[in-house]
Amino acid sequence: MSFVGRSLRRIEDRPLLMGQGAFAADCNWSGQLHMRVVRSPVAFGRILSIETEEAAALEGVVAIWTIADFDDLPPIDFRQMGLERLAPYRQFVLARDYVRYVGEPVAIVVAVDPYVAEDAADLVFCDIEELAPQLDATAEPVAFMPDVHPGLMSEPAVIRRGYGDLDAAFARAHKVVALEVKIGRHTGVPMETRGGLCVYDTDKDTLTLYGAAKVPHYNRDAISRMLRLAPGRLELSEGHVGGGFGIRGELYPEDVLVCAAALRLKRPVKWIEDRREHLLAANHSRDQVYRLKAAVDSSGFILGLQADFFTDQGAYVRTHGTTVTDLSAGLLPGPYVIPAYGVAGHIRLTNKTPAGTYRAPGRYESTFARERLIDQVAAELGLSPVEVRRVNLIGETAMPFDRGFETLGTKVVYDSGKYADLLERVLAHLDHDRLQAQLAERRSRGELVGLGLGYFVEKSGLGPQDLVRMRLDARGEIEIVTGVASVGQGVETALAQICAETLQVPIERIRVIHGQTDRIEIGFGAFASRVTVMAGSAVKIAAEALRASALEVAAKLLQTTPEALHLANGMIETVNGSASLALADVAAHLEETGGLTGEGRFASSHMTYPYGIHAAQVRVDPATCAVTIERYVVAYDVGRAVNPMLIEGQIVGGVAQGVGGAFLEEFVYDENGQPLAASFADYLMPTCHEVPEVEVILREDAPSPLNPLGVKGAGEGGINAAGAALAGAIDAAIQKPGAVTQLPITPGRLHAILRARLR
Amino acid sequence: MPDKRDVTLAVNGKTYAVSVEPRRSLADVLRDDCGLTGTHLGCEHGVCGACTVLVNEKPVRACLMFGVQAEGKTVRTVEGLADGDTLHPLQQAFWENHGLQCGFCTPGFLMLAAGALQENPDMTDDDIKDVLSSNLCRCTGYQNIVKAVRLAAREMRARARI
Ligand code: FES
Ligand code: FES
């Protein structure tokens, strides 16, 4: 029976449906204390004093600490893509000398009750000399911390990439098409806020942090380094995680503080963030401005692309280092040939919440910019947007396609793809010519309706490696231990299906352990759509190893050869059906000698590149500027779909977030740097009314040659081109090419566009 | 510390005698004092609906109500939805139709739908969507949640007819 490729229901759902989840806030320990963070009320300023006396006098307060009490704690380091020159821009766990954004941790209060901790935090007074904040990443750089780091400016790095002869391309151009676009500041906003419970074990003098996510092994090592804990004194444990989207699970000041407090007080300390804190303090993302210039020939083929862009990094450079800007620069060319390319990505600090990655980091943004450019080329040359995409797509025979530069420290080589084929499939699915005729007809009757497209290349399966250990016990139950993490995307089921495929055991008999640093020595976590690719491949290898030993033992017991045996439904049978043995019995037989186990390690220095298309059909109401999405199609080639239902879930969920970023979500600041979107009443996320029915065309036309399963990660394709496709659709609906240059397309912005159109 | 008040809560058919500060939200009382952590907090602001429970069988945001206000009323939380090991039709439908990913919003959606269907078992598909639009989910894109509730409603109507 095959398990891979089937839409099986998830093995992780039952406790979640029964209210028996173990999310961070659900973890409790007797005698626990509660931590509350005092946060900066201003965007930029010099700290004069922090007054804590009144707060300390409150009954139930155990401790109040500022940076003076953690003077020996180094700043939080980069997890990836760190550069030496970024080092001075790292954030300390509590503000030192300056505050640089509203919400920056300034002090912590530890108390016997969370309500008391919050009362006390309100009584801490921060005396801060306010300075003029920098709020525009495209403005001239300013001093980062004038007195502390004289001369250190707010542009820590510029990421450059390029190849080909740009000058020649522009000299040859039939036309030069230029464009400036902006993507708003938004972020993942998982429904569970951040949090953790750090428990001190008096007997063993060790700490355990519950509520870990995403990269538990890395965070264990990083916190241990900061607190100078010897290996083995800190373990991280992941329970249920209420959504990740790139932002949850990165190492933040609060994670270190809760451990430092538990260590110092030798008591369990719990910290649960509230929603306002989350919106002020967890990583923001996006917020880029692109300036593009394309040299094109008369067919719309892009001869050369010159790009400058700015990433509003916020107040500090966090764990991701240059990741977002690097990925933007690396994947801006997308699915198109573009023989000459030059890009400069400016990382700029401002006095906003620090930024990091959010699902499809650098790609939601760069796809919006690139696809707007393609639409613009089409408009300026009088060609159809479909045609311009067609002439620029990388051909099948050019695969694997080497861009000639790196991103995330790996060579950008598109491993496989049938780009033109997917475009034709989408057009056929839409019945494109007829649909366009229908839309034109509706427009002639006064309706504002149109279709937009966004083509994208994603990346997935970042290495370097993952390790899996598997054990089948005497009851026939399988335990898989992996170092990856789960942020709620269905990791357990997907890995169980891959295991079941090889071992022919129902997935209900498989348990997947993830995110427990004390159970396995290495683990690289859940990000960059890497879990199915990396851990999935390791599971396959481990399962094959386990199968081989099972068959070898069974062959001896049944007096035959392993080749004469096969597995079915938890049994090992001779091919002719004459004899059989339960896998569980083989395991029992091996109990004395270490049991029936398998180990798999999968390493890869290349990423895989899934690709897809979004097509959106919208109707604009000129009176209210409301946009109705009439139809939404996502075509995505993931190489091989382990569980199509879960992948469709990923895609539809991604679309919802993409729609939010396109129409609703934006962290707006006033001129003093005060955030105006600090609650769900102001930071608007889509409800089921705003999210369209999504038609998913899931393809497996271009399996990855880079892993034994052929899979490519599916987590980010659903969001990638949403802004691009919806912007194109609105342009088409109002028959004003190039009208939409900024996300989110709020009713106010659309109103301005429509007014300009009427003039 | 502020004074506490003794309250008796009837949750999922069980009686809980607790002593709580009057300012504690019902959600915190359920989670911390009754140990029922299935009710989640996503905003404590009345917007996301993760904390939805039934009070006197009507959906209520437990973050917007004080625990002491629940005295003398019946409260039903997600822990009281299944019948022993047998899942409620809503839970079953969420499972079959992949109506959850991280599962954090799930208890709120389940209780919202349970309350609404109890009040009006004959909701149309559009009614159902209207009701569900009052809660937030960040993972699923809602498609499968809406589908699951529609199918569960059908199933519950079919069972009621037998
Ligand atoms: S937690 Fe109650 S509505 Fe969000
Ligand atoms: S399933 Fe994660 S928020 Fe709804």
Characteristics:
heterodimer; A: 759 residues; alpha+beta; Aldehyde Oxidoreductase, domain 3; Aldehyde Oxidoreductase, domain 4; 3 domains; 19 helices; 29 strands; globular; B: 162 residues; Ubiquitin-like (UB roll); DNA polymerase, domain 1; 2 domains; five-stranded mixed sheet; 5 strands; binds FE2/S2 (inorganic) cluster
CATH class type of the largest domain in chain B: Alpha Beta
Any idea of the CATH class of the largest domain in chain A? Alpha Beta
> Rg of chain A, please?
27 Å
Q: Quick one: how many beta strands of chain A?
A: 29
Number of spatially distinct domains of chain A? 3
Strand content of chain B: 15-25%
CATH architecture of the largest domain in chain A: 2-Layer Sandwich
Mean pLDDT over all positions of chain A: 96
Helix content, binned percent of chain A = 25-40%
CATH fold-level assignment of the largest domain in chain B: Ubiquitin-like (UB roll)
Average pLDDT level of chain B: 97
Taking pLDDT < 50 over at least 5 consecutive residues as the criterion, the unreliable ranges of chain B are: none
State the helix count of chain B.
Answer: 5
Rg of chain B, nearest Å:
16 Å
Account of the 3D structure:
- The complex is a heterodimer of chains A (759) and B (162).
- In chain A, 29% of the residues lie in helices and 26% in strands.
- By secondary structure, chain A is of the alpha+beta class.
- Chain A folds into three domains: 18-131 and 193-241 and 248-281, Aldehyde oxidase/xanthine dehydrogenase, a/b hammerhead (Aldehyde Oxidoreductase, domain 3, Alpha-Beta Complex), CATH 3.90.1170; 285-461 and 607-758, Aldehyde oxidase/xanthine dehydrogenase, molybdopterin binding domain (Aldehyde Oxidoreductase, domain 4), CATH 3.30.365; 462-603, 2-Layer Sandwich (Aldehyde Oxidoreductase, domain 4).
- Chain A has a seven-stranded mixed sheet with strand order 3-5-1-12-9-10-11, sandwiched between helices. A six-stranded mixed sheet of chain A has the order 7-15-14-13-8-29.
- In chain A, strand 14 (302-314), helix 8 (323-331) and strand 15 (341-349) form a beta-alpha-beta unit.
- With 162 residues, chain B is an alpha+beta fold.
- Chain B contains five helices and five strands; from the N terminus they run E-E-H-E-E-E-H-H-H-H.
- Chain B has helices at residues 26-33, 89-96, 106-119, 125-132, 143-161, and strands at 5-11, 14-20, 52-55, 58-61, 74-76.
- In chain B, helix 2 packs across helix 5 (143-161).
- The longest helix of chain B is centred in the C-terminal third of the chain and has 19 residues, at 143-161.
- The model of chain B has no long low-confidence stretch (mean pLDDT 97).
- At the A-B interface, helix 1 and helix 16 of A face helix 2, helix 3, helix 4 and helix 5 of B.
- One FE2/S2 (inorganic) cluster sits between chains B (100-105, 137-140) and A (191, 242-243, 488).
